[in-house]
Design goal:
By secondary structure, the protein is α/β, with parallel strands linked by helices. The protein is built from 11 helices and 25 strands. The strands form 8 sheets. A 5-stranded parallel sheet has the order 5-2-1-9-21, with helices on one face. The protein has a 5-stranded parallel sheet with strand order 11-18-12-13-14. It has a 3-stranded antiparallel sheet with strand order 6-7-8, with no helix packed on it. A hairpin with a 4-residue loop joins β6 and β7. α1 packs parallel to α9 and α5 packs antiparallel against α6. The model has no long low-confidence stretch (mean pLDDT 92).
Length: 420
Amino acid sequence: MDNKKKVVIVGGGFAGIRLAKKFANNPKLDVIVLDQHNYHFFPPLLYEVSTAFIEPSNIIYPFRKLFQKASNIRFHMGKLDKVLPEFNKLVTDQGTLSYDYLVLAMGTEPNYFGNENIKKNAIAMKSIEDALMIRNHILFSMEKSMRSVILEEKQKFSTIVIAGGGPTGVELAGKIAELGRNIADKDYPEALGLKAKIYLIEGAPNLLNTMSINAQQEAYRVLEKLGVIIMLNTLVNDYQNSEVKLSSGEIIIAETLLWTSGVKARKVDGIAAACIGRGDRILVNDINQVDGYSNLFCIGDQALALHDTRYPQGHPQLAQVAIQQGKQLAENLQREILGIKTKPFLYKNKGSMAIISKFKAVVDLPKMYFGGLAAWLVWLLVHLVPLTGVRNRLKLLSNWFWSLMTNDPALRSIIGKVKQ
């Protein structure tokens, strides 16, 4: 008789992958990883794909290759439609799966706060497709700017507004500003002195609002020096017909609005409404078990745990939280199967960081802050080591080295869809 427990993990991000790897070759478990893409990707470097600094292939790795040596793990490509917890089944667009344990690790999606115009006309950055869309859109807008003979139109096509001054917004602003400084004259000699404008709009009083004051001040100083127009205590209220309408009443005419201003957890049909908390996150207990369900768990950005008194509003939606939760849940589920007492999850804060521009970054550790070149080198190391696959690490290192030495990455090709 087969006594193996079937575990289905929905989502192949940091949390889901760490969980699956911890289950690899466990003779007591059969594991299925469900994801709508057939590859795992590294979200912290999406902004480098969107700014033509690295290739998409540098940060993706096929799930099936990832699990080749794990005899008990299978990959199912599909999108979750609905969970049927009363039957221990889930419905996907490619069929139905049964489970003994179900783990939701689906992450987040952009939060447009109910603004349909922004949802329709802005571009978010949550996937490889989004990053390529941004790259294509910016490049195509510059081509339209060069073709136009009307000065106002040329300026509209070469103006970029970034909504959200968190790490993603800051990194995008810095990289786009650097590209404009280093390649604009070389690629667009017909610009005839036209100056591209980059706006960074943030609703809070500071950039990098969750980081230290030192990090906030450094980000502001470096971006301002790069020519980024920073507007604090300001919200983007609407965007249509190339008009970015701000809470201050000001209107910016721009062909491009990049939305990094907020996220919400991906919704799951079939989970009781009482289990859904702020930001659509799923309420879990101290072992990441969904409230009211014995064999349903949630980890990563999608989970909202309120048991940790150090984080009364829930853990931050960071990669380290997801990784640690995946590891802890793997240990707890294996303990439960063996009849051993589980251990509560407690997040160990290892700090946060953000890159601002070439040779400039900020790092907040639990007991100290540092910035500049040292922080930039640490940022490179931290984002290189966890990348899946030796080949990807070598390719990324090569791309970084060449682009940094030449200030002229050669990936500025418009391939695929362009947002019209």
